[in-house]
Amino acid sequence: MLCQECGEKQATLHFTKIVNGEKTEFHICESCAREKGEGIPGTSGGFSIHSLLSGLLDFEKSSTGGLGPKPPLTLRCDECGLTYTQFSKIGRFGCSSCYRHFADRLDPLFKRVHGNTIHVGKIPKRSGGQIQFKREIEELKKEMQLRIGQEEFEKAAGIRDRIRELESKLEQSG
Amino acid sequence: MGKRRFAQEALSDWMRSDGPDSEIVISSRIRIARNLRKQPFPMLATNQQSREVMEQLTAAAQSEELNEISRFDTFILSELSELEKRVLVEKHLISPNLASESRGGALILNDSESISIMINEEDHLRIQCLYPGFQIKEAWSLASQVDDIFESKVDYAFDEQRGYLTSCPTNVGTGIRASVMMHLPALVLTHQINRILSAITQVGLAVRGIYGEGSEAVGNIFQISNQITLGQSEDEIIDNLYGVARQIIEHEKAARERLVAESKIRIEDRVRRSFGILSNASIMDSKEAAQRLSDIRLGVDLDLIESVGPQVMNELMVLTQPGFLQQVFDEKLNADERDIRRAELIRRYLTQQT
């Protein structure tokens, strides 16, 4: 049997759809099935990472309440106008400010997707100089505590001086 | 407007050289997603804003530093024909998304096609670096260098807490996707593949088939990539992928050795049959072609067949995609005609080699 869509290839997908008691039979080939995409069982079409994500975000339909309490309907990004409801449907942010406006809602989402909520990787060289200092200070503070715990006070003092130096640099540039 | 060399050759120059472990790892790829601070992401950008983004980024690409790395050409997507776009997708130089949906889309491509920079895809900027064989760390260091050049010219959307901000929450943080494309015929033949693949997904990596639809792997080619982009540094992400891929390489090698030791004549028979069919068939669909090309490639790697080189699978896989077939034969082809032309092209290619 030839595919009823393109009439070219052999139909390999046969199925019957019953909607409200009305029966429709389909005989189509693989490539047409893919093109038609959604609504056809057994094909992957129409099921994207974004629809998966919006499943994670879809607090309203989820029986467990999804990601916490329902946000106010008015939650919206001032910059691009995307609402949180729209975001949860399409699974994509509209602009970089969305991250700030939806901030309270994002931790559970990132936790589910990445298992983490805080970036620890690369920092922009030109615009991220301050962040680099801050991170370095955090690291040094941890090390200083460790040295103090091990009673290596001289080393701890050295680290303290380095921290002060960085902090004054940070103040100057900020 | 640069020359349209990409449409002439199926094999990018970078693929012609061998890399480490290239009998198993076909290529290593890094993709970095970045956005400009002041503009809405491409999905919500107006045509005017998309054009501004494109102009700003193509201007940044004219920098001397970038041209010291390699010579680049810029292609405006709206100025390319449908066929040219399709060919670029088949060579994995642009995404299907950029080809079909983008507004203000552009591609900045170097001569060897190892660096492709997409503008106005899902994010404003996507830098992709490809290396032959198992060289994922090298790919990262090059991609990061290109990233630094752009960062010195434009303001990135970056947040101290969340890192590089991307359109999709699955890319936020480092914005990198590291992937290796592997040919794993022996693991498939010995039925170990499913066990290994399900283990991979448990360590935060994703596996998908390439050239196939969904998770089905056509031609025993699998792409393994990181899923997590937030909360791990780039080095951690790459080390993790490197370690896992290393193990898969060892498993595949062991499986190949065992196949040769235990059933060499069967493997040889399989390889020769596939070679015979590809050299003689009149109709060849893409799935069968991929499977039989995989057999031949395994035969080359195991020294069971000498008349063709190791590039045969890589090249024919791209050459026999729908867009390239139409490019080679210079006519529009329907599905049945493609299967006939595909068979013809493979026959011609294999007899030329011998």
Automatic annotation (TrEMBL), chain A:
Tell me the Gene Ontology biological-process terms attached to this UniProt entry: stress response to cadmium ion; stress response to copper ion
Please give the superkingdom of this protein's source: Bacteria
Q: Which InterPro entries match?
A: UVR_dom, UVR_dom_sf, YacH
Q: Name one GO molecular function term.
A: cobalt ion binding
Supply the SUPFAM superfamilies for this chain.
Answer: C-terminal UvrC-binding domain of UvrB
Q: Which residues form the UVR domain?
A: 134-169
- Transmembrane residue ranges: none
PANTHER family recorded:
PROTEIN-ARGININE KINASE ACTIVATOR PROTEIN (PTHR38430:SF1)
What is the designated name of this protein? UvrB/UvrC motif-containing protein
Q: Which organism is it from?
A: Paenibacillus roseus
From TrEMBL, chain B:
| Limits of the Phosphagen kinase C-terminal domain | 24-255
Entry-linked CDD domains: bacterial_phosphagen_kinase
Per the record, GO CC terms? extracellular space
GO MF, one example: creatine kinase activity
Q: Where does ATP bind?
A: 27-31, 92, 126, 177-181, 208-213
Q: Which Pfam families match?
A: ATP-gua_Ptrans
As recorded in UniProt, its EC number(s) are 2.7.14.1
User: In which residues does the motif RDXXRA motif of the pArg binding pocket involved in allosteric regulation occur?
Assistant: 338-343
Q: Which reaction does it catalyse?
A: L-arginyl-[protein] + ATP = N(omega)-phospho-L-arginyl-[protein] + ADP + H(+)
Q: Tell me the keywords, alphabetical order.
A: Allosteric enzyme, ATP-binding, Kinase, Nucleotide-binding, Transferase
Top-level taxon: Bacteria
- Describe activation and inhibition of this protein: Appears to be allosterically activated by the binding of pArg-containing polypeptides to the pArg-binding pocket localized in the C-terminal domain of McsB.
GO BP terms in the entry = phosphocreatine biosynthetic process
| Cross-referenced SUPFAM superfamilies | Glutamine synthetase/guanido kinase
- Family statement: Belongs to the ATP:guanido phosphotransferase family.
HAMAP family, per the entry: Prot_Arg_kinase
NCBIfam families for the chain: PRK01059.1-4 (NF002194), PRK01059.1-5 (NF002195)
Record function comment: Catalyzes the specific phosphorylation of arginine residues in proteins.
Q: Which PANTHER family match?
A: ARGININE KINASE 1-RELATED, ARGININE OR CREATINE KINASE
Name this polypeptide is given: Protein-arginine kinase
Its source organism is: Paenibacillus roseus
